[in-house]
């Protein structure tokens, strides 16, 4: 009997050694779709490159269990995408990597929005919805990359009328070798994944088109190059997501300076930290710029099913402000609004029923520009966030 117990114990020890246990997970989602035959190869190259990049990241973080997900044009629609994101039970210690490549356009009214509406088979969907689905679960690290134009507001024919051309099998054949991460780079990678942060980044600013060549999209290549540069840097202060994104912006702009490209596009992003939207304050002095949000619950009549709220935005700053540009949700009829009423602290009010982040782009009299963020959050009665 005791010999059998010893054998069982030995087998358990061997099993633990052979099959490591994971307390943390990396979930990756790579979705590619196009109904434009001319963009089939770039989309497939993007699919392959990003899949390899995410896999390399996971291999260099062995304490994480890697759970890759991928969908291509013939295998997903809006319902499938959201269902997949909702199904995975990632938590506060996990990492989520998300990438989608497809056609993009302005919001459904044709107006400019901070992040594009993307063509998902059988539907048009604000790309921010994907990020919101992930972000509300509050993983330790969440990176969502939207490789799509933020234009094409007048081209509804991209919705999904034609045959879809991207296939996962062909994408795998297009894989170009990406330098595998090694021990020399894992310290920087560990620093990147240590910070609890969530980022959504798209390849182009509102109203602009982005471009792709035979070796993939301009921004996707710039992001991968900037990522590898960040891992190889010997300056620990530069091993952070903000520096990485700024470098990808620089590389994208450098590549699109040619007359071949109509728009010299560049990536735009929002950074969230510690359960809320982090402020980006570029003023080097002690003075700072702040976006304040007041919420007021409106009267709900018996026949109403939805509770509405009046939202009032204001901006305070230690510097003299000339104007403020507010970036609202994609679903708003006018998601980008400019105000110049300095005597009212650049007050702008509107009515909503949903909670989402707000960006304020502040233009100062001295010509400088700052960006700051805050969240709409509903509370009982009036509240200031």
Automatic annotation (TrEMBL):
Coiled-coil ranges (or none): none
Every Prokaryotic YEATS domain range: 316-375
The protein's name in its UniProt record: PYEATS domain-containing protein
Matching InterPro entries: Pept_C14_caspase, pYEATS, YEAST_sf
Residue span, Peptidase C14 caspase domain: 83-230
